Amino acid sequence: MIGRTTPTLSSLFPLAAACAIAASACANAPSPLVPHVGGSVGVPHKGVLGGGVELPRDSEGIVWLRQDDRHFGVPRLVHAITEASKKVRVARPNATLVVGDLSRRTGGELSGHASHRVGRDVDLLLYMTTLDGVPVQSTGFSSVGLDGLAWDKTRREFLRLDVERQWLLVKSLVEDPDANVQWIFVHQNIEALLLEWARAKNETTETVFRAMTMMLRPKPPADPHDDHLHVRVECIPDEIDHGCMPFGPAWPWLKKRARPEPSTAELLHDLLGPVGAAPPTVAWVDFSSP
After folding, report:
1. CA distances to 95, 110, 138, 227 from 126, in Å
2. pLDDT digits (tens, 9 = 90+) for 133-188
3. What residues are paired with 256 via a beta bridge?
4. How far, in Å, CA of 225 to CA of 188, rounded?
5. pTM of the model
6. In angstroms, rounded to a whole number, what is the distance separating the alpha carbons of residues 129 and 162?
7. What are phi and psi of 9, to 5 degrees?
8. Does 3 fall in a domain?
9. How many domains does the chain have?
10. What angle in degrees, to the nearest 10, is found between the helix axes of 163-175 and 188-200?
11. pLDDT tens digits for range 159-168
12. Is residue 168 part of a domain?
C-alpha cells in the first residue's frame, strides 16, 4: 500500500501562484470580490473610475465646452481645476476657463481619447484675448503658433494667447500641494511663451523648473496639443492600495510611498491569503515637502 504524501510548502507555490494569477484577472476593477479596490483604478489608458466627482457646472470662472457626461474625475483633480481658475480670476478678472473632457462617471474607454479612462486627465482650453487685449471665451480648439496667434473659426478672426492668465493657471497647478500633477501635455510653442513670461516675472526657480519639467509635447501620432492643455495627475499613496497604478516618471516633488522589500510572511500572505484581503501596511514618504 502506497503511503499518502504530505504536501510540502514548496510544492504549494505553483498552485498558489496559479490561483493568484487567476484571482488577479477579476481584481483590477471595483467588485464585491475585491472590496478594497476603488477610485482611480489602473493606468490612464486602461482602467476604470469609481467614486469620481463631477466638475461643477457653476464653478467660478469655469464653463464646460460641451454639455455631456464627460466631466468626472478624482476629487483632487476637480478641486485643483476649480481652485486654479479662481486664482486666475482673482488676479486677472473677466476670464473664463473652458473645460473639455475629463472621464465618464465610471471611467473606461472614451471616444476621441487614448487616455481619460481613470479620472486623472483633463483637457483645458486656452485663455485667449482679442488682438486689442480684451479677454474672450474660447469657443473651441484653436491652434496657437509661435507668435501666440490663433485663428478662431467661429469668430472668423485672429485671437492672441493670453499668456499672463495661462501662466497663472499653470503656476497654480504645478504649485498645488495636493493635486500631484505629473504632466501638462502642450505644444512647445505654448511652453516657450509661458516660460518666457514666467522668467520675465521673476517666478521662483523651483516653480519654473517644475513647469518646464511637466510641460511636454506628446510624441506623434498624438495630437500636437497646440490648442489646449492636457493635465494629468499621478496616483497618491492612498490610491495605490486601492488599485491606482503609477505610470510614468516619479518627479521628486510628487507624493509617493517607499516600498520596502516584502518579507517572506508578506509574500505568503499575498499568495495564499483570501482574495480581496486588505494589503499589509506600508510606510509612506511625502516628497512634496521641502
Report:
1. 11, 22, 7, 7
2. 999 999 999 999 999 999 999 999 999 999 999 999 999 999 999 999 999 999 99
3. 285
4. 9
5. 0.79
6. 6
7. -60, -40
8. no
9. 1
10. 90
11. 999 999 999 9
12. yes
